[in-house]
Amino acid sequence: MNAVTTIARKEVRDAIAGRWLVLYAAVFATLALGLSYLGQKNLGGLGFENFSRTTASLLNLCLLLSPLIALSLGAGSIAGERDRGHLPYLLSQPISRLDLLLGKFAGLTSAIAIATIAGFGAGGVVIATFASSVDVSTYVTLLCLVLALTAVMTGLGLLASVVSSSRVQALGIAMMVWFVAVLFFDLVLIGAVSQASLGGTGLLVTLLLNPVEIVRVLAIIQLEPDLEVLGPFGSYLLESVGATGATAILSAALAAWAVIPVAAAAWLFARREI
Amino acid sequence: MARDVPAVAATGLTKRYGRTTAVDNLTFALNPGEIVALLGPNGAGKTTTFKCILGITGFDGSVEVAGKSVRRHGKDARQLIGYLPQTPAFDSADTAQTSLRFLADLKAVAVAQVETLLKRVNLYDQRLMKVGELSGGMRQRLALAAALLSDPPVLLLDEPTANLDLQNRQQFHDMLRDLRSEGKTVVLSTHFIESISGLPDRFIVLEQGRIILDISATELAARRVDNRFLVNLNGTAPAAFLSALAHIGIRRDHISPDETNIEHALAHELASRQKGGEAQR
After folding, report:
1. Backbone angles phi, psi at B38, to 5 degrees
2. Could you tell me the residue range of the domain that residue B263 belongs to?
3. ipTM beyond 0.90?
4. CATH of the domain at B33
5. Are B83 and A95 an interchain contact pair (Cβ–Cβ within 8 Å)?
6. Helix, strand, coil proportions of chain A in percent (round to 5)?
7. Is residue B124, in this structure, part of any structural domain at all?
């Protein structure tokens, strides 16, 4: 077993022992069930909605919750080891800094993925048992997108962890990223776009600047491409290049978001004084 | 490890933090199978020297471990070093066994070695206890076991006995003597020389990042301190010794208990060198 795998396994083991993994999975499953049930009640029926409706309801919740957990865990990783005084000892082992960073990234992403799959899975099984129609593929699509967003946000959290001098500072940066990406992006940029009269390219670049927005638009394109729900950035993209082109562009951008923060964190970590 | 290759060789080793020079142009070669005491007050550069040898911080100059450049082959060089930090860095929620297994995996060492070492440091019965529940001495022994996992030829021990009581310290010293007899090079860093008294073969004293004394224990012990000598009676009754001295004109009132020990000898040596340096200036 190589060093990256060893470190990743320890991260997963620590996550299970720390119980947050179980708690996170339980929260996801509860919310999946709750959203489905409440959605059905609002429509005047009793019981559970089908997969598609549940998936759409879950989308906004996932875009809020999964970046939050991934960013905070990523931010706490390297900075946490530094705060506890464990970093020099870990690096005194026959491993490289890149091994440590990739091990942390792989471990945290896997741990969050396990919790997310378990939560979604439990919710999905219950809904499939009682729902009026079954559309598993949309549910699985959303799950995959959430996992991709988790990887991106864990990478951004790691980057915050590497550039910070303490865990508190890293968490502060991570929370700021979450606030801007999840809550503030639409409001600020819609204002900026109208003021600056951005053209088509400007709109597209703006969309690609935010991985949360990328996942949101990708998810809506896959689930139900409604221009109102897509927002100005997504609508422009869909009209310009069609669903297939938009999916390809957004997927490539998401992959870049998954790689670039981790690469930047590795570059900085290799040069930082510990 | 070949006997003619130094276990650790540093040439012009320098480490700066901004404008502060923590380690200044150190050059030394440590031989296989010797216990070296790296002495100096807090901030003298002992831990920084260890970090440079481990290659976990950048530095100027060169450091080689058994002929391997730390800068170019950091992972290979670290495989040859067992490091015991000042404060053992284990997760308190992990058991002693789990902690060692994790480190064994990182070092690509067989799991069986974990059991062997837990027995060697007398922690086998406590292997399922959480690290947070172990005493300071037990944690220190666990850290020593971790340092020994890959059977490294070089051990860097940072203030290893600072938190140990007398009994644990003695056990720790015995273990280090065993390791020396196995041919391992042990470097002990401390600012508290009494804690390692009688153990080192060589003393390197740092002050403000520079080596101010590098001397073997034999050479140091042979140095006369003023006009006093430390006499090993080797089983002879003190009365017989006193009587023999009286025959050559040394009366009982010339004799007083001598507090000379390695610490005094070292302090004396440092003071005389300082005087010599001032006289030269």
Report:
1. -100, 105
2. 221-280
3. no
4. 3.40.50.300
5. no
6. 85, 0, 15
7. no
Burial status of residue B244 (CB atoms within 10 A of its CB: 0-12, 13-18, 19 or more): exposed
Q: Which of A4, A14, A86, A89 to mutate to test the interface with B (most CBs of B within 10 A)?
A: A89
B276 and B149 within one domain: no
Strand B202-207 to B35-39 pairing: parallel
Q: Does residue A111 contact residue A15 with C-beta atoms inside 8 Å?
A: yes
The mean per-residue pLDDT over the stretch B143-154 comes to 94
Q: Which residue matches tokens 């990223």?
A: A177
pTM here is 0.84
Is B148 in the same domain as B213? yes
Tell me: do B147 and B194 sit in the same domain.
yes
pLDDT in tens, B61-82: 999 999 999 999 999 999 999 9
Considering the domain architecture, whether residues B80 and B190 belong to the same structural domain is answered as: yes
**In chain B, how many domains are there?**
2
Interface mutation target, options A12, A93, A165, chain B, most CBs of B under 10 Å: A93
Per-residue model confidence (pLDDT) at position B225: 56
pLDDT of residue B163 exceeding 90, the answer is no
**Which residues of chain A lie closer than 8 angstroms to B130, CB-CB?**
none
Pairing of strands B185-190, B202-207: unpaired
Q: Which of B184, B200, B217 is the last residue of a domain?
A: B217
> If you count residue pairs, one on A and one on B, with CB atoms under 8 Å apart, how many are there?
56
**Chain A residues touching residue B89 (CB < 8 angstroms):** 84-86, 88-90
Tell whether B1 is covered by a domain: no
Q: Are residues B83 and B180 in the same domain?
A: yes
Adjacent-strand bridge partners of B64: B9, B69
